[in-house]
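Data deposition worksheet. Section B asks for the primary sequence of the deposited chain exactly as it was used as input, without tags or linkers unless they were present during the calculation. Section C holds the resulting structure in token form. Section D is free text for depositor observations; keep each observation to a single sentence. Incomplete worksheets are returned to the depositor.
Section A, Depositor: J.P.
Section B:
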Amino acid sequence: MQLADLEADRVDRHEEDERLAALFSTGILDTPPEACYDALTRLAAEYFRADAVGLVFADESRVWVKSHWGKHILEFPRLNSIFDTVLANDGPVIASKLSKHALFDGTLPNLNVDGVTFLASVPVRSFTAKILGVLTIFCYEPRYGLSPDELHMLESLADMAASQLELRRLRKCLAANELPRQHEAGVAQIWPSIDDLHRALDQQQFVLYYQPEVELSTRRIVGLEALIRWQHPERGLVPPMDFIPLAEESGLILPIGDWGLEEACKQIQVWCREDPLNNSLRVGVNLSARQFSRAGLADHVKALLLQFGIRPRQLGLEMTESSLIPNLRIALEVLGSLRRLGVSLFLDDFGTGYSSLNHLHSFPFDVLKIDRSFVDRMTQGDPPLQIVRTIIELARVLGLDVVAEGIETREQYRLLRQLGCRFGQGYLFASPMSAEAVTELLRLPGRILPDPEASEPVRA
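Section C:
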């Protein structure tokens, strides 16, 4: 039985790899609106008298909306979505009385179509018959199915979308002076390979460790930074610098990053259920530049907040200056959407990148994180100390909180308090640790950590 399960997993992984290869070959993801796709959703809305229509495509972890009619979000998590249902069915899905339909209980909040009583969804396939997306109609008035002619019409509209995809793929090949060909996987020469990362995702080998952020005046835990690790069955705990560069290069940082966001939200829910006082905690999750190239990031985050029943301020999103630079326009739009959503926005590694002051005026951050390189050198002379002092004063003028990273010595701790830095994190207080170990710390009276002035810090 176990051998059969493993074989099924291999088949599923192969199928998904081929599906993703077909999807990426079209270049459709995260593209601007196009009249041909908008015409299809408009036709579907008019023909079926639908209240909402969506044409969506799905990569490893998210469903992205290419065109819509009626209520609209830009993207949402793939897990338990209507796309996964159509994919599992390998064909159309039609459902009535959705409020009583358990299959879609976890889906409708993601789709932002509360009150829908009927939906019909058909696959959009590649020229190799892989399901790349779905075309879905939603109705608020009760309806009890589609006639064979109506289903044929909906499938014909999906086929028209598929034809546009194939034209896009062929144009992409011609522009690159290539002949259409089957996707061929490269052979990795070093570890890890892309297949290793895929396997780690499939087998849930990634884990989140958490490092406490404390109020320096009281040593009270006020938040946590989520840090990804790879719990490899043979190599043990693999640090992020050993696999994140490959994940960035291959594009797998998107599903890995989405997994981290979901896992952090899930853990916030667990801690809040254990003790309502933990509702005041804020967990920060690091985001990559590729995640900021997605205009629908805020919709994705909103869906996770709804799914796990947590407040926006309980989630912090951390980004570096360099992650915002590749596309400043989209970064501004995404940050604005996240700010309106109410999540906390952290500028990580402040001072190490580009035009920091200019970005502080442009982007709606809540918190500056002083890079550990400045904290490490602040006891070595007056210039490094003045840099830290200037960052803290700048944050005060702009009304931002400050978190000092990499606090490892008592002298750094004393200097930061004297300079008026409110918050900090580092090995002096606690190393990154498992969620179970953090749970024990949160049970300390008042969530107050031992005084590092009275004891030696514990290093990982």
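Section D:
The longest helix spans residues 148-175.
The CA atoms of residues 113 and 262 lie 21 Å apart.
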